[in-house]
Design goal:
498 residues; globular; 21 helices
Length: 498
């Protein structure tokens, strides 16, 4: 079988596998919701391409698009973390077949390159190219510019795949993109205005002379081939390591028993379970550390840099700090427990106690964002009232909404699988809940500010949050009772997806 036939066969198998998944229908709703978001972004980038196209045609500078392309590629790079997974899990069924493992890896890489998401940036590039073509750029130069821009997007997809694969192995690999992008922006911080203007003029002249030559296309083609080859080799080695479950030998370490929590009885035992899950399980631990990294990064940026100074940005990032852990973990509430859900059904109200322990644990975790957010408070960017308003919004309405998903979640989440495990939304409500958690409190605040001033608006937000927080026993028991009415349906889902 040649590689073309193998490619179409594997593609067909992937489609059939998706349709046979017990959560296929639920995922369809999630995809529809995602398509709406993509459509809105597409319209915005269409307007961006049109604006820069008219500007380039007016200034007779068709290379203008390449000045903003680095920023678009950075947005594309980080956006892929939320929308695109590594293809390594697709290789697992073929490791014991006569099919060449490298050929399978290559086919899945090519499938990723042909993904419609890589065509998203044509919403910016096509209107720009059409306008500059109408402005006098030759047809061949216009087509070459479009091919080069698309090739840069494909190079960015391979760069993302490399970074995503490495950071799944160890968080220190985040230093790789940090150094790369930090080097790009370093001149703007260390050079004077005159030196920076001279540098941009030099880059502009070089760009004007080289960007439409075959040298630029050859450079990005060679870079693409290099990254493709590195990903092929790296992914093959790592997928073998994970499938075989090879682990480094380590010395036996002391295991903390968290005896302090013994005084809380059964809730204390479940609190120990949550703490040890965060410490020991790769999937949960990585999301926790990534959350601390991003919250610290935005806190430092707001505190010491002249960015994110608008009212919406400051409120959004403050809310983001408190909602993040719930948005990435509580949307999948009870999914990790799907591995041993039968044991939790043995004693009456076992699950109710577990849900309350989870609630107390995720409330306690919010003390970390409170400490990190003190930096913007000290520099005058945030107020204590603002911090308290979003803290109680998270422990109140947001957590109340996210814990409702315990009623509907019924797909088991693997605890340690990273490369070969699935990490998408398991049902339509998870995506909707995440978006509501991130944006509804901001909308609520702005509506209150339209009637009252900032102080009154934050006070009302805090009062609403406290009301939900103090009534937690009531709405948590309601969630438990609804879970019990659906327990057999949920058990069937957990068993089918283990």
């Amino acid at each position: 079988m040649n590689k073309i036939k193998l490619f179409f066969l594997l593609r067909k198998n992937v489609k059939l596998s998706e349709k046979r998944n017990p959560m296929f229908e639920a995922n369809q709703y999630g995809k529809l919701f995602g398509y709406i978001i993509i459509a809105i972004l597409g319209l915005e980038f269409l307007a961006l391409g049109t604006f820069f196209g008219w500007l380039a045609a007016k200034e007779a500078a068709p290379e203008l698009i390449f000045y903003i392309t680095p920023f678009l590629l950075i947005f594309d790079f980080f956006g892929r973390f939320a929308t695109q997974q590594t293809p390594l899990m697709l290789v697992k069924p073929y490791l014991l077949t006569p099919v060449s493992k490298y050929s399978a890896i290559e086919c899945f890489q090519i499938q990723q390159l042909l993904d419609s998401g890589n065509l998203f940036w044509l919403t910016t590039f096509l209107p720009y190219a059409f306008i500059v073509w109408c402005g006098g750029l030759t047809t061949w130069a216009t087509l070459g510019m479009l091919l080069l821009l698309h090739l840069m997007v494909l190079v960015n997809s391979q760069w993302y795949l490399l970074v995503r694969t490495l950071v799944n192995q160890h968080l220190l690999w985040w230093l790789l993109p940090a150094l790369f992008y930090g080097t790009l922006f370093l001149p703007s911080f260390i050079l004077s205005n005159a030196q920076f203007d001279a540098l941009t003029d030099f880059i502009g002249d070089a760009l004007e002379n080289v960007i439409f030559s075959w040298w630029s296309f050859a450079f990005f083609a060679a870079l693409f081939a290099l990254l493709f080859a590195i990903n092929r080799q790296l992914q093959m080695r790592l997928v073998y390591a994970e499938i075989s479950k090879t682990e480094k030998k380590s010395k036996l370490k002391h295991v903390s028993e968290f005896k302090t929590l013994n005084r809380f009885g059964q809730i204390g035992e479940y609190l120990k379970l949550e703490i040890k899950s965060t410490m020991r399980n790769k999937a949960i631990r990585v999301r926790f550390i990534q959350g601390l990294f991003f919250i610290t990064f935005f806190s430092l940026a707001i505190a010491f840099l002249d960015i994110y100074r608008s009212s919406f940005e400051r409120n959004f990032f403050c809310l983001y700090a408190f909602v993040f852990f719930g948005a990435v973990n509580l949307t999948k509430v009870m999914c990790p427990e799907g591995n041993f859900i039968d044991l939790l059904m043995v004693h009456e109200e076992n699950i109710l106690t577990l849900l309350r322990a989870k609630y107390y644990y995720y409330c306690a975790i919010l003390l970390l964002p409170v400490l990190i957010m003190l930096l913007p408070v000290i520099t005058g960017q945030f107020s204590i009232l603002m911090i308290l308003a979003y803290l109680f919004t998270a422990t109140g309405p947001v957590y109340c909404m996210l814990f409702q998903l315990a009623v509907y979640n019924k797909q088991t989440l693997p605890l340690n699988d990273k490369l070969t495990g699935k990490n998408q939304m398991e049902n339509k409500w998870q995506g909707i809940a995440s978006m509501v958690a991130m944006f509804f409190p901001i909308i609520e605040l702005f509506l209150l500010q339209a009637i009252f001033d900032y102080t009154i608006a934050y006070l009302l937000l805090m009062v609403i949050g406290l009301a939900f927080t103090l009534t937690e026993p009531l709405w948590m028991r309601n969630i438990y009772q609804r879970m019990m009415r659906r327990r057999y349906q949920n058990l069937e889902g957990f068993h089918a997806t283990r």
